[in-house]
Design brief:
Layout: E1 9-18, H1 22-30, E2 44-49, E3 58-62, E4 77-86, E5 91-99, E6 107-115, E7 118-127, H2 135-166
């Protein structure tokens, strides 16, 4: 295909979480088997092997929509392996090791960065060019997904803070 022998696609997305601090957001992301709680349209995230949060663990994720589904009712899925995690630096990396979305040699690093108003979630990614996609498709898919994730985490943490305050 035309994508062969092309350089890997690389990019970065950011999303601000207003209010909650990095130390509050981190446990939500650190739960490697809990991505379906935050990522839009992801209906399933199940453990395949290992212990969540320990390098080498694998999760199965399914049900998400991609920009190239074109209205087709395809169940997109991937198996993702946690490569590294640093609880001090609030960062982890994982790779996609199997799936039906065409993400070959996909590696991502997610980091939670403190700031004065809460925190920022950074998502770096690298993948071989994906058949049927453009780099802009991938950037939009990751950026829009991360924005929804940040908003959901913000709302969950603010509602739990309100519940704690009223107890």
């Amino acid at each position: 295909m035309a994508h062969q022998n092309q350089p890997k696609w690389k990019g970065k997305a950011n999303a601000k979480v207003e209010g909650p601090k990095a130390e509050q957001v981190w446990p939500l992301l650190e739960d490697f088997f809990g991505l379906n709680k935050w990522f839009p349209t992801l209906s399933t995230c199940l453990p395949v092997e290992g212990i969540s949060g320990q390098p080498g663990c694998v999760r199965y994720c399914a049900g998400f929509k991609t920009p190239v589904n074109n209205g087709e009712e395809i169940v997109n899925w991937t198996k993702q392996k946690l490569l590294s995690i640093d609880k001090t630096e609030l960062t982890f990396s994982y790779s996609i090791i199997d799936g039906n979305v065409g993400f070959n040699s996909y590696v991502t690093t997610i980091k939670v960065v403190p700031n004065e108003d809460g925190c920022i979630v950074e998502w770096w990614y690298e993948v071989e060019p994906v058949e049927g996609w453009t780099q802009e498709d991938l950037k939009t898919f990751i950026s829009s997904g991360l924005l929804v994730m940040a908003k959901r985490m913000e709302e969950a943490l603010q509602s739990s803070a309100q519940t704690s305050a009223s107890s």
